Amino acid sequence: MKKWLIALAMFFSFTAYAVIEVHEFDSPEQERQFHELNQTLRCPKCQNNTIGDSNAELALDLRQKVYEMTKAGKSKQEIVDYMVARYGNFVTYKPPFTAATAILWFGPLLVVLGGFAIMITRTKRNQTTRKESLSSDDNERLDALLNDKDGDSK
Asked: Locate the CcmH/CycL/Ccl2/NrfF N-terminal domain: which residues (predicted)?
C-alpha cells in the first residue's frame, strides 16, 4: 500500500513542472500587442512555430524580450525591426521582397518556362528532320539493297 501511495504521489507531482507565463501590462493595448507579436514572430530555432507556440528556450527568451519592449512602450514595428536586425528576415512570416527572395519566387517559374522552351525546340527539330524525304537516287539505292537477295547470303 505504501508503494502505491508513493507512486501516486510521484505521478501527481509531475504536474508541478507545468509553467504558466503570467505577464502584467499597463494597458489592454499593450497586452493585445504582446499577444499579436507572439503569434506573428517565428521562432528561429523551431520548424515553422511562432514564439508563442514554441516551448524552445530561445522562444521563451524572445517572448520575454517582446514583453520587456512592450512594457517599455515600443511600437509593434520597432519590436519587429529589432528582431529582424538580430535574427534576420526568417523571424517574420512576411519577409520583404529583395533580390534574394526574388530568386525564390521566380526561380521555379523560370525553370518550368525553360523546360517548356527546350521541349518545344526539340519537338520542332524532330519534326523538321522527319519531313525531309529521300531523293530519287536514294530511293533507288534503297530499293536495290532491299531487293538484293545475294547480299543476304554473304
From this structure: 7-146
Give 94-107 pLDDT, tens digit per residue.
Answer: 878 888 788 888 99
In whole angstroms, what is the distance from residue 110 CA to residue 42 CA?
29
DSSP letter, residue 149: S
Say if CB 42 and CB 90 are below 8 A apart.
Answer: yes
Question: Is the entire prediction scored with pTM above 0.70?
Answer: no
Rounded Cα distance, 62 and 43, in Å: 8
- Among 84, 82, 105, residue whose Cα is nearest residue 93: 84
For residue 67 the three cell numbers come to 514583453
Quick one: how many helices (H) and strands (E) in the chain? Answer: 7, 0
Domain boundaries, the chain: 2-91, 99-153
Cα–Cα distance between 42 and 45 in angstroms, integer?
9
CATH fold of 2-91 reads Helicase, Ruva Protein; domain 3 (1.10.8)
User: How many Å apart are CA 120 and CA 126, to the nearest integer?
Assistant: 10
